[in-house]
Write the structure tokens for this entry.
Amino acid sequence: YSLLPVLASEQGSEVDNAFETLFLYAMPVFMLVIAVLIYGVARWRVKDPERGDDFDNSHVFSWTWFGVSVGLASLVLITPGLTGFLALRDQPPPDVVIDLTGVQWHWDVAFPGMDMVMEAPAELLLPKDKVVRFNITSVDVIHSFWVPAFRLKQDANPGEINSVTITPTELGAFEENPVFRLQCAELCGTGHARMFLPIRVVEPAEFEAWLAGMGDGGGMDMGGGSTTTSMDMTT
């Protein structure tokens, strides 16, 4: 059993590893702070309302605490800091490239090389075990790309293109698990809460069939009760 939501991307494992590592680092520090707090309350609690007990500062304890803090900070910087950054930076060439544009309050989707833009689609399909690169931008305010099942987050800034690479590893759909959704994670106005796009991770053959159907100019029902609609066949 895990307290974390379903993990459905290769890159997301680095995020989970970072969370678990930081949790392990934090636990002994937390326990030590609580132990010192309890000892301090028991040892130097006020007996006389007019005057508390006298106590001297321990230089050994202060320097030890400083050294431990520096050591932990350096450890966090190395792992998961640098190791996680390098792991997420070095990604293979993408199998699929998707252009995402944040608009108050929906996502527009385009596939470079195909003469179409899906404006506010009802659903986005992604191929399992294929490297997908998202090129993300915005036309109005700052939005943010975030799929809970994939873990990674990337801001969508007006006039800029930011990229994030995802390799889906688990089949799933929003109807079955709400973590399969492209959610805006940056407060962007009154419609922020409803700015999400359902995600469905399918086998590569099913994705290719869906994409071919989109390229022909028609929506395709993938058997899950949802149909991709609202497609503008302009560049």
Summary: The first helix runs from residue 12 to 43. The chain has three helices and twelve strands.
